[in-house]
Amino acid sequence: MENDNAVRVRGLVKRYPDKVAVNGVDLDIHRGEVFALLGPNGAGKTTTTEILEGYRRADEGEVSVLGTDPAHADRLWRSRIGIVLQTSRDEAESTVAELVSHYAGYYPNPRDPDEVIAAVGLEEKRKTRPRKLSGGQRRRLDVALGVVGNPELLFLDEPTTGFDPEARRQFWTLIENLRTSGTTILLTTHYLDEAEHLADRVGVIDDGRMIEIGTPETLGGRGARTARVSWSDADGQHELRTDKPTAEVAALMARFGGEVPELEVRRPSLEDIYLELIGKANDAKSVAIEAGAL
Ligand SMILES: Nc1ncnc2c1ncn2[C@@H]1O[C@H](COP(=O)(O)OP(=O)(O)OP(=O)(O)O)[C@@H](O)[C@H]1O
């Protein structure tokens, strides 16, 4: 049955011969949200995503994507999802415009190919063959092919790997526009700033387990963390932790009579929190192994 969740997963388990890749994952992705799946290499992100896409079978658990179990999905269901893979497709002899139009033809309700090409910033490359595109331009083409079918749910696997900073910003705008148009997006990324910028919620997965799910602002109690105020003077660098950084800055300004040398106010970044969560999970694992529990 369809409900407010584009994705609903309970107790998902996937075993490979020598590895439990996904070990009891629960996950809800609401319609219209951008959800980022974070985790170290080998954590189980791709395996989870591929099960949601219908490319792998779960060993245990319940999986519902757009109201259907992907293991038994049909063509119509497939036309409602879009996938942007890590490895690009290679249709060497078609141009960008031909490829995007060709893909549009597979779907019952596609977007206008010209609008899609413009949206990914490839207008000048319409007549170019994919092998002559740069790495970043190739990724844009991958995104164009993933969205031309007008998907309700878009899977983006490490979409900006290899992008220069400007291309990454442009890509973020593209994703924001898709979100505004109502597309639900599942993003996997190793870039924490990307998750912070784009995601409504993030899930941190490690060793096949979902450690925590939250908004980028509150994950790991981030919102409640104290700020660090640092500055320098003739004695060197100083840093203090405080719940009232504004008052500290005002006091420093008064002390220095204006400009405070090398003043910086920092709250823990999403990356700080992420590394802490992964570190804690690894510590817990070591304790369990020592105790003979694993
Ligand atoms: N086809 C397979 N056969 C056997 N083991 C596999 C297979 N695919 C993945 N694995 C293992 O399952 C675990 C999870 O892999 P997965 O690709 O899901 O991780 P990931 O989080 O996507 O990693 P990355 O960030 O490196 O892409 C890893 O230990 C991996 O070696």
UniProtKB/TrEMBL annotation:
Main location class: membrane
GO process annotations (BP): response to antibiotic
Domain of life: Bacteria
Biological source species: Kribbella kalugense
GO cellular component: plasma membrane
Membrane topology label: Peripheral membrane protein
Any one Gene Ontology molecular-function term assigned to this protein's record: ATP binding
Keyword Membrane assigned: yes
Transmembrane segments: none
Compartments where located: Cell membrane
Keyword Membrane part of the UniProt annotation: yes
Record's protein name: ABC-2 type transport system ATP-binding protein
Domain ABC transporter: 7-232
UniProtKB keywords: Antibiotic resistance, ATP-binding, Cell membrane, Membrane, Nucleotide-binding, Translocase, Transport
Signal peptide range: none
